[in-house]
Amino acid sequence: MSQAFAADIAPAAIGLADYACLPSQSRGRRFTEPEAPTRNVFQRDRDRIVHSTAFRRLVYKTQVFLNHEGDLFRTRLTHSLEVAQLGRSLARALGLHEDLVEAIALAHDLGHTPFGHAGQDALNECMTPYGGFEHNLQSLRVVDGLEERYPQFDGLNLCFETREGILKHCSPRNAQKLEEAEPGGVGARFLQRQQPSLEAQLCNLADEMAYNAHDIDDGVRSGLISLEQLQEVVLFNAYMVKVQDEFPALTGRRLLFESIRRMLSDQVYEVMDTTRALLQEHAPSSVDDVRRSPPLVRFSPGMLAASTEMKQFLMQSLYRHPQVLQTTDWARQVVHELFDAYMQKPSAMPEQHVKRADLPRAVADYIAGMTDRFATKEHARLTGKVLIS
Ligand code: MG
Predict the structure, then answer these.
(1) Nearest Cα to 267, choosing from 86, 141, 39, 104?
(2) Around Cβ 233, how many Cβ atoms within 10 Å?
(3) Which residues partner with 29 through β-bridges?
(4) Ligand 1: distance of its center to the CA of 249 in Å?
């Protein structure tokens, strides 16, 4: 369907609500491009993301467990696919634009460093004197500038709505910088204290639902948390007890999977109900109404409390498990030493990074783009040390 044709159709006729983002009403791309004959602008954004180099790198980037620790743990890529799946289910049920949700979900982690949060923290420490490092802002930098694929512009030249969704957090200082470079652009809402589109809000919550559920799965798979420990987690235990009542002989993986499946599915339905009630209460009739309303895609207070308790459990029992912390200590050292090595000898980087005017930012961009295994190899090459094996 061409854009001109799509623009003539009422949103409801194609299953979309008045508060959905419509491709025909997009605030556009930074560089004007002709429309594609058969794909809407959000589909096109999604396709550009899937074909990007940064997207392919996600397969070798850590979510929680370092890539070499096992083949079945989530990586940034499989995590992003799970977020897209949850997001699309929610979008379809709520009359929101699925293609936009998919584009945001697939791009939301493009700016992550190697080695998960340990890598991001270490790079932020290295960059503190030079403006810091933040993975959300880095995801935007990837799609706005760092991808080199098109003859006429740097980056992927995505639509405003996709970029707005990618930048889910931003400090006032960084928002101010973005605003100076692009007045009224993606930084503005942080200064005006407005919300992003419902599609973007939905991706945020889908991200949280996805990682809570899959970190339980990966945590048990790794042997660092047990089903017995999970009985302390109110939300999870409620489902496990029900599954055990129904299937008394069920143990191990199938018990775990069925409990996670039910928990995730209930969370999805509960977000739909809560969001529908909030939409009715605030009655936004356009995306701009949504931006001026409070956050509308939410858990109920009860589910929020239960989900927070589960996050605290994961923090204490998994993310701060001594075995996880040991690998994250190595990861921090790798990032710090890589940063120092390139700062001292910029020519150790490929030429396109060396010639940039802002050396610290060029080094940070180069390191942030690395996969776990490339960073490990580069570190060994430059320092002669083998920290992670
Ligand atoms: Mg994520």
Answers:
(1) 86
(2) 21
(3) 159
(4) 35
Residue 374 located in a structural domain:
yes
Q: What are the counts of helices (DSSP H) followed by strands (DSSP E) for the chain? A: 20, 0
Q: What is the pLDDT of residues 309-359, one digit of tens each?
A: 999 999 999 988 988 888 888 899 999 999 999 999 999 999 989 888 999
Q: What's the full length of the chain, in residues?
A: 389
Residue 389 counted as domain residue: no
Q: For residue 150, what are the contacts with CB-CB under 8 A and spacing of at least 6? A: 156, 157
What would the pLDDT profile of 124-163 be if each residue is shown by its tens digit? Answer: 999 999 999 999 999 999 999 999 999 999 999 999 999 9
Tell me, in angstroms, the distance from the centre of ligand 1 to residue 335's CA.
21
277: containing domain: 3-383
Choice among 258-272, 301-315, 321-335 with the minimum mean pLDDT: 321-335
The Å distance, Cα 125 to ligand 1 centre, comes to 21
Q: Which amino acid is at 292?
A: R
Based on the structure, what is the number of domains in the chain? 1
Q: What's the gap in Å between 76 CA and the centre of ligand 1? A: 7
Q: Which two tokens stand for residue 193?
A: 């204290």
The CATH number of the domain holding residue 299 is 1.10.3210.10
**CA-based R_g, the chain, Å:** 22
pTM of the model: 0.94
Q: Separation of 205 CA from ligand 1 center, angstroms?
A: 10
| In a domain? residue 44 | yes
Q: Distance between CA atoms of 192 and 189, rounded to whole angstroms?
A: 5
**CA 109–ligand 1 middle distance (angstroms):** 6
Residue 388: inside a domain, yes or no?
A: no
- How many angstroms is it from 108 CA to the middle of ligand 1? 6
